[in-house]
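User: What would this chain look like folded?
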Amino acid sequence: MKYGKQFWTKELGLKWTLHLKDMLNTPYAEKLMGFINIEYAMANVKPSRENLFKSFRLCPWENVKVVIVGNEPHFVQDSNGLAYGAQFTSRFHTGELTNVATCIEKDYYNGLNLDFDFSLESWAKQGVLLLNTSLSVRVPLKGSHKKPWGKFNSAVLNAINDYKPGTIFILWGKEARSLVPHIKDTNYTLVYDCPGEYYDTYKDWNCPNFKEADKILIDLYGESIKW
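Assistant: Here's the prediction, encoded as structure tokens.
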């Protein structure tokens, strides 16, 4: 098999590979990577190839405390492979990320936070898996890679749901909320509107999920995420 344990361990990390081995050792996974490699060779695909599995490497299996589910990488140049994250913090940001940053500033920094990490890598390193349900997309075709990634992301979410009790799932928007009936009672589910729905409107995205997650994390671990 071309894409074996060594390949996946490099891309995902050892423990992710072990927990996903039943899916990774199938013809589906082989076909998925063949398709993805052709797409990168022939088309403009986001994020860059080196960032395709970045969310897993920055948030190893053993560190996962929170899962934030996004849709797909955005089309702007600085998509970095983390749901809602930006590659370059000094450049224009998407409406979704701008609303996330504004909400954090208001709730935790009295409306001013000059050090907000727009890459969201600091969240990932604290145990927040920022998972897009489609890890890649062909620009400018929204949803173009959604179907190929379906089984992969189902395996990821099922593994966390089954073997990481106490995980907090933060689900924004209609598509992400469709996962709610499948999340076990041993885990936590927090839902709200997608931050992108509030862009170019006069409404503030007053998402309560960050503080709700803090309460759960402090109860479980004695510490919260530095958002």
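The CA atoms of residues 218 and 224 lie 5 Å apart. If you want, I can go into more detail on any region.
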